Amino acid sequence: MKLLEIRDLATELSDGRQWMRAVDGVSLEVRRGETFCLVGESGSGKSVTALSVMGLLPHARHRHPSGEVMLHDEAGTGVSLLGAGDAVLSGVRGGRIGMIFQEPMTSLNPVLTIGEQIEEVLLLHRPELDAPTRHERIRAALEEVRIADAATRMREYPHRLSGGQRQRVMIAMALICEPALLIADEPTTALDVTVQAEILRLMRELQQRRGMGLLFITHDFGVVSRIADTVGVMKKGQLVECGTVADVLRRPTHAYTQSLIASLPERLPRGKRGEARAQALVALRDLAVHFPVRRGLLRRVVSHVRAVDGVSLEVHPGEVVALVGESGCGKSTLGRTLLRLLEPSAGKILLEGRDITDLSHTAMRPLRRRMQVVFQDPGSSLNPRLPIATTLLEPMRVHGVGNDEDERFARAAELLERVEMPADSLWRYPHEFSGGQRQRLAIARALVLEPTFILCDEITSALDVSVQAGILKLLRRLVDEEGLGMLFITHNMGVVEYLSDRIAVMHAGRIVESGRTADVLADPQEAYTRTLLAAVPRLDECVT
Amino acid sequence: MTEQVQRARPWSAEVIGALLVRTSARIGLAWIAVLVAAAVFAPWIANSHPLYLVVDEKVSFPAMRHLTAADYTWFAAFILAIFAWRLRGPVFLRFVGWFLSVAIAGLIAWVCVAPPTLVIHEQYRELEASGRIDFVLRAPIPYSAKDYLRDYGDTGIEAPLAASDGRVHWFGTEDNGADVASRMIHAARIALGIGFIATGIALIIGTLIGGLMGYFSGVVDMIGMRLVEIFEAIPTLFLLLTFVAFFGRSIYMMMIIIGITSWSGYARYVRAEFLRLRDQDFVQGAIASGLPLSSILFRHMLPNGVAPLLVAASFGVASAILAETTLSFLGLGLVDDPSWGQLLNQAVQSSTFNWWLAVFPGGAIFLTVFAYNLIGEALRDAVDPHTQRAAGGAAR
User: Fold this and answer.
1) What domains does chain B contain, in order, with CATH numbers?
2) What is d(CA B78, CA A230) in angstroms, rounded to the nearest whole number?
């Protein structure tokens, strides 16, 4: 039974000067009790499609050259949403269509309690209810999304809740008026993988119990396989392929879908790996980083946050060690401490057998060229005010690499070629490049000093899957050809599987399990590792 | 993700471009340009000395001969500014180069230029009356700022175009009989100079202290913030009055005092920016590359943190001008040199209300402060990523 029907929808957005087509002739249907997944890379128009349905696009900055969006009720009569007036739309939004957004940290109002925020929805759409009934319903809704002790939680402010709990509250808020359709825009992207698994299970359960339609937007094929009934693949504003989840994921017909699935890291072909050499490049011995917690008038240290708590780890030349863990487990702190960007509280850091734990900043400076780093966010990993040439040449000049400017220039150009960037990039500024290109440039920046060790801190998590595939191949090639040692911090198990030789699983500041990647993934010994691996959504586990 | 290649322009060029498309900024800049022209070319616009004179078949250029070192410095600064504008290279370097060469030019001018110490403004009018002049080319306003028209007797305050003896004063005359239009044109120098130099001093101190606070944080930050609070507690006007009472009246002293009492705001801005930038990946990357501290601070952090500073500075220029005007209005400004506040003061001094002494200088003050505020507002929009990046991020 049809619930939402989109016919030939086109949406154009304006930046004030010109119109750009963001959605180009999309037709789809969401039935009651069905989960429709819109999947695509960033900029493919999947969010804009959802926002067009809700009428939430910026006023006067959008137009619909064609298309029709119908929301059908149980009797079969439909209401047209595209270009509908505010009166119609505000009745539909929150009432008959619920919506959940990506970022749980910012989608709740920090100055209102959770109960008040949910109550507002009820006041608007169900004005006939009296206060005790409303409270009862809010409590029931929070219990339904499995918030423990819902009656107390209602009176708390959002900052008391974790990301996963906030997303549960968002779901409760979206479902409080029992909408016929729920639109979820990447609701689990910002969450840890175990939390994501719980939220996905919860959404699936609620949807089946209520028989509502679910339009689920995501970029993650693993998530698709876990939740979807029907899948639509979007590319540049067009719906290129649409079908049941088993058909699309197992037997993709469109070339674009095929290439997307082929570039998933767990699907990338793996070459033969050489054996790692014996002497450790970088070694950590019982490393601990404690941040003091100060309280009271005299700022006395009352306790410590044990971000990293006794970690021993070795990275050999020619191997990639993956450091895996959920957010807040201390893996980034570990990385920064290893580079001496943060001061360790205890333990030793050895670089090529030499203890660098207590070296002063001046003594560290010449050693810094041995170990380099690439960070997560492509938006901030390059200085936006400097052309690429300056960014690449300055460290060389400081460390005396190359005899004169011409030689350094030649080296920089050669490096750009190695990271597969055009040579004319040297005179450009970072904002002229896409996220993937910027990460390649950040890698070039790290390589320019001929390091023996590179730390990669979640460098592909902000990238699209096809771009990520290119970067991963590049990294593996660098490690295999040049014998670099690499510590790769990530939360993505697919990436670990493709890239790493050894894996270390980190939980609450400690390494709970480590070993050869294939062994650990095939036969995890620790309970935490098993939970983590079970939570990872995989392409092969289609719901049927 | 947009794979298209955009134009390769440095950030400064982007900001200037974004500034110039805004009408308010154009209006503000146009008025500042008028002021700059008036300040630079004051001796050619309003001067009792003729520009070109033929007496008894002898040719002379009295206006040129009476040019002071300040006149030469202003003119050199103007020419050098045009030169620096045409040059290529980073904006910051060009600015520093310009500033240094102006300083050198000023020094040379003070040493080499020696105008006649005895200035007799009325001699040309007397010459003309005696009929000895063969040809004369006068400035558009043929009165110097300090020409008190002694040869016409005690003229005093006159309304615009009210003189009956053939003189033409478009904006009237002031207390001592000097031409108001001429004094206003010469006063543009003080308005511009005090705004730029006082704000420049404040910017340099504020950036240094704020930058150190933001980068090192901890104890340095605590001491710096207490220093900021101390300086914020000093009332600028009261301090100026005290210094004027003790050390006499000097425009340079005013500039310095306004500068060293108003840096605290800039320090707060820079501190906040540096605290934010310190955790940015590219700064961490620069530290991890082993770059020296000076490069991290001045090459990687400062250029990324100047945006709010530029905005604050253009408002700061306006408030420095107002501070000087206030002082002159209270009668504690410069003694003989023209200033808008001083003219404004005379509007209410005598028993009658002299509207032309209120309207014209008051209007100039209003327009100047308004122009700087317009530029500040437009600059805020121009450097704001939310209004600028609309083009790239629309199709998410």
Assistant:
1) 28-46+179-388 (1.10.3720.10)
2) 70
